[in-house]
Amino acid sequence: xxxxxxxxxxxxxxxxxxxxxxxxxxxxxxxxxxxxxxxxxxxxxxxxxxxxxxxxxxxxxxxxxxxxxxxxxxxxxxxxxxxxxxxxxxxxxxxxxxxxxxxxxxxxxxxxxxxxxxxxxxxxxxxxxxxxxxxxxxxxxxxxxxxxxxxxxxxxxxxxxxxxxxxxxxxxxxxxxxxxxxxxxxxxxxxxxxxxxxxxxxxxxxxxxxxxxxxxxxxxxxxxxxxxxxxxxxxxxxxxxxxxxxxxxxxxxxxxxxxxxxxxxxxxxxxxxxxxxxxxxxxxxxxxxxxxxxxxxxxxxxxxxxxxxxxxxxxxxxxxxxxxxxxxxxxxxxxxxxxxxxxxxxxxxxxxxxxxxxxxxxxxxxxxxxxxxxxxxxxxxxxxxxxxxxxxxxxxxxxxxxxxx
Length: 405
Known about the structure:
Elements: E1 7-15, H1 23-36, E2 41-46, H2 48-55, H3 62-75, E3 83-87, H4 93-102, H5 107-111, H6 114-122, H7 131-134, H8 136-145, E4 149-154, H9 159-176, H10 182-191, H11 195-211, H12 214-225, H13 232-242, E5 254-257, H14 285-293, H15 314-322, H16 325-336, H17 342-369, H18 371-400
Parallel strand pairs: 1-2, 1-4, 2-3, 4-5
Helix pairs in contact: 3-17, 4-8, 4-18, 8-9, 10-13, 11-12, 12-13, 14-17, 15-17
């Protein structure tokens, strides 16, 4: 099935509302989102239903966490005029598509998702033998497919989730993309492209189907994408006709690999609230100073006059992010020669982290003082997201024979 999307430049990404976001979230995800919002049509989702998969036994904090998450996004530079910010549960079409896709998705596909067993082993204090936890990868697929997003920004470890989304879409299209009178409708759609483009489309399709030439397929897909005078349904038919399939109802998204975060935790491991090694994006300066001053350093530096090795010190990883080349050179020279102590070494990191956080605190202040602004942003985002999701579901219901007149 074609991997072309109705929204090749459309991106869907989200976060579960599980508490205040930390610097790992900012450097690992939000900085990338802030850049992407000017290059793609971005939909950013607060995934509150996904928070229930592991925290269904205590939902008392979810609402507060939803608003905290949105404030952190805005503080990080996510611009509601450049992207769509919405809450998953406010768009019920996610749940409907999840339900309908569950009818065609094999159980084994869900059980083989790598994080399924990993999370069960990691969170042994929780009962995760629930349908919701087993089915969360399919809900994740529905989140993406209901917007016909062409791209999903993920790290390498999350690519299997995107692959499962592609498989689920492909299987769905196989069952329900056999539109009555498909060939006749395709012929009419080709005519609407004009003689020159119609001839090129047929030529490229023939070359791909007879020779398996992938570049011909991609060129033909781009040709279809460029046609401004054909309807959305005709466009989907033309995509599906290229590789011999039917109408593409749910286009397959692509994984958009994002840079690996270089932001470590206070102990050198990955920054995580569950590890107790995180600094929140909007944490008070006194708390930040205390955390950094008590960070572990190179074990070899027992006394002040013991030389050390920056590469063996978690603080050095912070210097790589927050310090200038000049300061880093000062650290390397001073540490290896015992010319500076660990307390001196940590001060530039404290200054760098606090300067970054000051920006977050200043941006967040307006929203903290006027909660109605956040609610308006989210309300408008939910309306926009729902308009797109409804359009997809109209096509899905029609394809499945559920669009009763």
